[in-house]
Write a structure and sequence with these properties.
This protein is mainly alpha-helical.
């Protein structure tokens, strides 16, 4: 009910909200088809981790020892996975779809 009820600037912003949201999602979908799933899985941990660090370091969110342990274990698992992937990649040929 906000369309045509407010300022013209608000109407333009409402019209652009869909494409502004859809374009990055379409670009992401296009990029995903070009990446190996192992790389994509690793990248999916970077964004939430950066958001978490921003919340703790910049905005002062509370951070307990339990949360630090969980965060450390998640990244330890990622390091083990990355090391295994690199080691496997050096010894086995990569199969292209």
């Amino acid at each position: 009910m906000a369309f045509l009820a407010g300022s013209p600037l608000l109407d333009v912003l409402l019209l652009l909200a869909g494409p502004i949201t859809a374009i990055p999602l379409l670009l992401f979908a296009g990029a995903v088809t070009r990446l190996p799933l192992s790389s994509l899985g690793f990248v999916q941990y970077v964004s939430p981790s950066m958001q978490f660090l921003l919340a703790v370091l910049v905005y002062g969110e509370p951070f307990s020892a339990t949360q630090a342990g969980a965060f450390g274990l998640i990244w330890l698992a990622l390091v083990v996975f990355a090391a295994h992937t690199l080691r496997r990649g050096a010894s086995e040929p990569v199969m292209e779809p």
